[in-house]
Amino acid sequence: MAIRRVLPEELQSAHTEIRELARGYGLETFDIVFEMVDYDEINEIAALGGFPTRYPHWRFGMEYDYLQKSYTYGLQKIYELVINTDPCYAYLQVGNEMVDQKLVMAHVYGHCDFFKNNVWFSKTNRKMLDQMANHSTRIREYQDRYGVDVVEDFIDVCASLDNLIDFYSVFVGPKAKVPQALDKQIDEEDIARPQNAGFQYRSYMENFINPAHHVAEQERKFQEAEMKKAKFPHLAERDILKFLIEYAPLKNWQRDILTISREEAYYFAPQGQTKIMNEGWASYWHSRIMTQHILKDSEIIDFADHNSGVLSSSPGQINPYKIGIELWRDIEDRWNRGAFGKEYDDCDNGPKKKAWDLKLGKGQEKIFEVRRLHNDVTFIDAFMTEEFCERLKLFTYGFNRRTGQYEILDRDWRKVKNQLLQGLTNFGNPVIRVEDANYENRGELLLAHQHEGVDLEYDKAVETIKNIQKIWQRPVNILTKYNAQPKVLGFDGKDIHEKDA
Amino acid sequence: MITGIKRDHLRFKQIVKGKIKQNLKKYISQGELIGRQGKDYVSIPVNQIDLPRFKFGKRQQGGVGQGEGAPGTPLGPGEDPAQQQQAGNTPGQHAMEVEVTLAELAQMLGDELALPRIEPKGQGSINSSKYKFTGINNVGPNSLRHAKRTFKQALKRQITTGMYDPNDPVIIPTKRDARYKAWKKVEKPENNAVIIYMMDVSGSMGDEQKEIVRTESFWIDTWLRSQYNSIDIRYIIHDASAREVDQDTFYHTRESGGTLISSAYKLCNEIIDKEYPSSEWNIYALHFSDGDNWSGEDTKLCVELLKVELLPKVNQFCYGQVESRYGSGQFIKDLLEHFKDEERLVTSKIESKEAIYRSLKEFLGKGR
Question: Do the Cβ atoms of B197 and B250 come closer than 8 Å?
Answer without folding.
Answer: yes
